[in-house]
Design brief:
This protein is α/β, with parallel strands linked by helices. Helices cover about 45% and strands about 15% of the residues.
Length: about 300
């Protein structure tokens, strides 16, 4: 079994359930490149294991995931030159320049990963809690089912904080509805677990202190289904969405996301910042220097 630094991987119930747990609680499970690569490796390991029937994706601590890592010390180390640089910063477009570099890297490690997990050959359950931001939604939306602790909220604030048209995996209209998505993106508002349940995004809401136990019970019930039945149910729903335009819409919105980045990068040529700043009208959200902030304050 692979040794992971930023996640844990467990096989439960005689291997029928795999649980992948994000393990950066200090930064509210912010998604560094190292964490993203480890989650993908664990997902593929669970997919390859014929004993596994259900995969749970969870997060340690008080937050499932606070989004992309935008400024923790780990982020600086893995991106910087030297022996501790993560190897993915030398491949998949990393040595290209400007928009091409960003587009290929984000396609592989944000967008491509999400699509791969959405189509995993196993049933997946996101076990969510806390204030979930931006790319934290991607982790949840990539799963077949989402369960939530009471008090959980979901928000993509990149429109107000960074002047962006959404995260790379733009499933928002499919999850929130068209007009609710526009409102949430334009105001930076959030959806609580109860609303998410009403609109069908969240399947179950559990008491916060019972989240892990109740999610495991839920996974056990799903694992009772014959594997072929489970897979065909998943395929029937996913293929229906794709026929309705889900896959093509996500591809188009990923391209719009890159145009949005390129717009701000051109405006901020001297600084190299590829998003809006406070001077551009973005909402201030970094309350402290990145090295001393919590994960919530350094991620989106």
């Amino acid at each position: 079994m692979t040794d992971y630094r930023f996640i844990t991987y467990e096989l439960l119930d005689e291997g029928t359930i795999a649980r992948i747990t994000l393990n950066r609680p200090k930064y509210r499970n912010a998604q560094s490149r190292s964490l993203l690569v480890e989650v993908n490796e664990a997902m593929l390991a669970a997919e390859a294991d014929d004993t596994v029937r259900v995969v749970i994706l969870a997060g340690t601590g008080d937050c499932f995931s606070s989004g992309h890592d935008m400024g923790t010390p780990d982020r600086a180390i893995e991106r910087g030159e030297g022996p501790d640089q993560h190897p993915t910063f030398q491949i998949n477009g990393a040595t290209r320049e400007s928009t091409e570099k960003r587009m290929i890297q984000e396609w592989h490690y944000y967008y491509g990963n999400s699509l791969r997990w959405r189509n995993l050959r196993k049933i997946t359950i996101a076990q969510t809690q806390g204030q979930i931001f931006a790319a934290g939604l991607t982790f949840a939306w990539s799963c077949d089912l989402i369960v939530a602790a009471e008090g959980t909220t979901y928000c993509d604030p990149v429109g107000t904080r960074l002047g962006m048209c959404g995260i790379e995996y733009f499933a928002h209209p499919w999850e929130f509805g068209a007009r609710r998505t526009k409102e949430l993106m334009l105001t930076g508002g959030s959806v609580d677990a109860e609303e998410a349940h009403r609109i069908g995004m969240v399947s179950q809401i559990f008491p916060a202190d019972e989240l892990e136990e109740r999610t495991l019970e839920y996974a056990r019930e799903i694992a009772k289904r014959p594997t072929m039945t489970a897979l065909m149910i998943k395929e029937a729903v996913n293929q229906t969405q794709d026929i309705q335009g889900f896959y093509n819409a996500l591809n188009a919105c990923f391209s719009l996301h890159q145009i949005n980045h390129a717009h701000w990068a051109e405006i901020h040529l001297d600084s190299g910042v590829a998003h809006a700043t406070v001077a551009d009208g973005a909402v201030e959200w970094r309350k402290k220097p990145a090295s001393t902030t919590s994960g919530e304050e350094v991620t989106v």
